Amino acid sequence: MYRDQIAEALQSHHADYVDIRLEESTATRIHYRGRDLEDISQPSSSGGNVRALVNGGWGFVSFNEPGDLREKVALAVRQANLVGKDTSHLAPVPPVVDRVEEVAAKDCRFLALADKKRLLDEYNEVIWSTPKVETSVLGYADKHRRVVFANSEGSYIEQGHSDISLRVTVVARDGGDVQQAGLSLGSRGDFGQIEGLHQQVKETAQRAVDLLAAPQAKAGEYCVVLDPVLAGVFTHEAFGHLSEADFTYENERLKEIMVLGRRFAAQHLNIVDGAAVPGLRGSYKYDDEGVPATTTYLIKEGVLVGRLHSRETAAKMGEPTTGNARAVDYRYPPIVRMTNTYIEPQGLSFQEIIADVKEGIYAKNWYGGTTSMEMFTFSAGEAYMIRNGRVAELLRPVVLTGNVFTTLKNIDAIGSDLDMNQGGGCGKGGQSPLPVSNGSPHIRIQRCLIGGR
Fold first, then answer.
1. 326-376, pLDDT tens digit by residue?
2. Domain tally for the chain?
3. In terms of DSSP H, where are the helices of 217-284?
4. I want to staple 193 with a disulfide (CB 3.0 to 4.6 A). Which of 39, 187, 331, 394 is the partner?
């Protein structure tokens, strides 16, 4: 796809570095609000961009038509000349020539729109067969991207893959009391992974109804056990973003905190990010700078040992490349992003984790949350009391808040049941939703602050 034009455009320029990315995509969107089908479409798009680096300054041009790539390169170089006043730094990587085409087991590209809609119709019927449901949102999206990347160092890479996401939100009502429950799933293009979820959809709808009669937890400090979904979201949001090197490099206070070699947790805690883990929504062979995917330890045996990099941040901080430069599509330049972020499992069963908890809270799933530097606030989608080593009554969703570094130190038990959450997407720098996954085994946190009545 446009290989000769790209090669010609990269031959003549006055820049320290240039890359070109061209992209074609096709997508499906199906969206229900309540019983009504609100949107069904199959859009397609194509376009590309050019980045140029001159004296440490970047120029960036995006476009829909790939014609006259030489002029687009020249424009990016002119922009970079207006910015650059320093020395250009990019970590060296060997040039790569490769072609990667992923085909999922039941690839969404090859299914008829009617078949996709039929499954969503079934899930919507399950939702609305539940009494006291007030409204619901059911959203499905898939996308196949084919991307060509080439740079002035000799790399030429073609990559193609698909992504699927499914989101279910159910709202129940009893008079003036309103509660909601949600389910979020996804896959690396395999439609089979979102089929057969009728029971899970039914349980989600019923949980929204059950929450109407559930009590609210008393606010205070508890021993809290997180399920793999919420623990994975905590790992991604509260710690993972602090490990993105562009954030660290530009923040003097964070530089003082995120010092490699510093102990943040007990020896049993390992946190990893890696696109080289196969088959997940954040997986790929090469990032959007043509750097091979890696698996990077962020915390190993409780000690901060790594962070996530683009070629520029790796060079500026004198650290190895990790293959974490990503762009949500051709309209944006790549920035440092997570891929598949998770806590490694240890040897405890769930029963062993809760066995000696006299009074605590079991928090599951998630609604959302916010972070500000090392402080976080997360809303669990589901919660239960733990009493004398057993899961007890259902609670209304709880809010967890605290300091991420204190919380890491307070993780005193890690399960053996690693599970990866592939729902949702990550947002950063105006680029959203970027396909990622996050996960964890069950973990136990001592002295976690819970908001409630």
1. 999 999 999 999 999 999 999 999 999 999 999 999 999 988 778 888 999
2. 2
3. 228-234, 245-249, 252-257
4. 187
